[in-house]
Specification:
The complex is a heterodimer of chains A (161) and B (217).
Chain A: H1 2-7, H2 12-30, E1 40-48, E2 55-64, E3 70-77, E4 82-89, E5 92-96, E6 99-101, E7 105-109, E8 115-119, E9 130-137, E10 143-150
Parallel strand pairs in A: 1-10
Antiparallel strand pairs in A: 1-2, 2-7, 2-8, 3-6, 3-9, 4-5, 4-8, 9-10
Chain B: H1 2-23, H2 30-39, E1 44-52, E2 57-59, E3 65-67, H3 68-71, E4 77-82, H4 89-101, H5 106-111, E5 113-118, H6 126-136, E6 142-144, H7 148-156, E7 166-167, E8 173-174, E9 181-184, E10 190-195, H8 201-212
Parallel strand pairs in B: 4-5, 5-6
Antiparallel strand pairs in B: 1-10, 2-3, 4-9, 7-8, 9-10
Helix pairs in contact in B: 1-2, 4-8
The chains are: A alpha+beta (161), B alpha+beta (217).
């Protein structure tokens, strides 16, 4: 169902947020938890090997198991001094100031959707290497993550169906 | 129209998940769910009314005139609209097709034409495309650039809407890629199958042998 829904690509961002909202509502209604602050955990990070030597994208999931919402506000890395966060709407990339990491929810940066954008690369990452980044949040402390560099066609989301 | 149906169905699915998460097993969402999953294994959408091939005459990566209809006549052809300053979907689409193409017998590889038309012609010069396309996709792929209005009109003939690149206040440029790859039949020279951007290598690998023969996947 997921892959079918996302194939209407123009609607994918809308769908994703609708589904996220619905799921969020369900969790809030049913869960008996939890603390007040956000509790973040990053998983599934990767960078597809970039084509050129000037630009790359990074993807990951931030899971928030806490009871408070947070925001991803910036990303830094030794590999580039020009890193921004982008969402994709109607086949266009748009820079955003922050991504919500909802309480009892997650932020999914995945292929075809939102991503971390690395510009003016200092060196071109190659498959098999790892790119270290630091994620900064509005409330939580920074989190260091390594993005393994994968083949250009890598898309873990698609292996699940 | 199709998109609306998908959206509605997805909402039902989402609602279904919500219900079962809370109540432990309300099956009211069953009908639409079954309908969606029945289609889930078909990555391409075969069109009831195929598109005529657009009469695009542009410039290829060698700086030479390229007449799309003339050059791809009677050949299986995949057309995609994108731009090289695209970090994710454009290189992913080209790589997926390139990897799947290599699984075809050599003779079929030679028949298949893959055409990448830039939506950002100001930055994507023939030289720029010549540098990007072989590593994003394959050296055999054709890269085309030219006048934006011409490219936009050609895309529109196949139902693909492309906005011109827009310069932001900070100097960055927001470009746009097409949502679909369109497969043209060698038998009719018409665009008869659409592939969305989440089509995988395996999906293409499964369909390409049929597309090369002009059959429905």
């Amino acid at each position: 169902m997921n892959r079918r829904a996302t194939s209407a690509s123009a609607l994918a961002p809308v769908l994703a947020s609708v589904i996220a909202l619905t799921a969020g509502a369900a969790l809030a209604g049913c869960s008996t938890s939890s603390g007040n602050g956000p509790e973040l955990k990053v998983s599934g990070a990767f960078m597809p090997q970039p084509v050129g030597d000037d630009m790359a994208a990074g993807f990951l999931t931030v899971r928030n198991s806490g009871g408070g919402a947070d925001k991803l506000t910036s990303v830094t890395s030794d590999i580039s001094d020009d890193i921004t966060i982008h969402e994709t709407n109607n086949q266009k990339m748009q820079e955003v100031n922050a991504f919500d990491v909802p309480a009892d929810g997650e932020l999914d940066l995945e292929r075809g959707g939102s991503h971390i954008m690395f510009m003016k690369l200092k060196q071109k990452p190659k498959q098999g290497e790892k790119v270290a980044v630091e994620l900064r949040f509005e409330k939580s402390g920074p989190i260091k993550v390594e993005l393994p560099v994968k083949e250009p066609t890598y898309n873990p989301m698609k292996h699940e169906h | 129209m199709r998109k609306k149906t998908v959206l509605a169905a997805a909402l039902v699915v989402a609602a279904g998940l919500t219900l079962s998460a809370c109540s432990g097993g309300d099956d009211s969402g069953k009908g639409p769910v079954a309908e969606i999953s029945a289609q889930a294994n078909r990555p391409g959408t075969v069109l009831d009314q195929p598109y005529a091939k657009p009469n695009l005459v542009l410039t290829d990566t060698h700086g030479k005139k390229y007449d799309l209809r003339e050059r791809t006549k009677g050949k299986p052809t995949l057309i995609y609209f994108g731009y090289t300053h695209c970090p994710d979907v454009c290189p992913l689409t080209m790589s997926n097709i390139a990897v799947a193409r290599k699984q075809l017998p050599k003779a079929d590889q030679d028949k298949l034409q893959v055409v990448f038309v830039t939506t950002d012609p100001e930055r994507d010069t023939p030289a720029e495309l010549a540098k990007w396309l072989p590593s994003a996709g394959d050296p055999s792929f054709t890269g085309l650039t030219g006048d934006f209005a011409t490219i936009q009109a050609g895309a529109r003939q196949m139902g693909i809407g492309i906005d011109p690149p827009k310069k932001e206040k900070d100097g960055s440029v927001v470009s746009m890629h097409g949502a679909q790859v369109i497969a043209f039949s060698p038998k009719t020279d018409r665009g008869y199958v659409l592939y969305g951007e989440d089509t995988t290598v395996d999906d293409y690998a499964k369909d390409l042998p049929k597309l090369v023969r002009g059959e429905n996947p």
